[in-house]
Amino acid sequence: MEYDLREQTAPDARERVDELLTEIHDAMPGPWSFDEFRTWLSRRRGVPVEMRPRPDDQHVDTPCGWTLVCEDRDIVYYPLDTPETRARFITYHEFAHLLFNHEDGETDRRTLVEQLAPDVNPDLVKKVFGRTNYDRPEEQEAELLALHLLRNDIEHLGIGVRSTNPRVATRVGRALRLLRGC
Question: What keywords were assigned to this record (predicted)?
Fold first, then answer.
């Protein structure tokens, strides 16, 4: 069975992603670098976006990326020991949560912060996002926007998506065709 993101994503999510992409392209017409995008995101949100790599320990219960929305900054955690394209996609997914100003849905935020980011004061954290439950509409929006943002890197910045695994290469090809409207 072939996976088609257009069939899996709610129409209102696609509409919200399209509106946000228009805003992004109006603010930054033409190819932009990851750092330029992060700077734009910081200005748009009014706080710095701090990047923190972490070991990619592959624990089942640990999200592969997460974001802490604090009073004075946003902190995005991304896997260190993973291919650049995967790390970038995870980061863009987290950026999407920030751009959409999603609610975190976490009931025990303090415990989660203490487990994932023990160096951050939990009293200063307003929201926590982690890539875990992909059935939520917020996750669908974040995934779709992340695909579009990653396309900029692939098509304009030469960040390659190469794999010797035929299944991975097939999935990437399908995603790129979807983004091009093929």
Answer: Plasmid
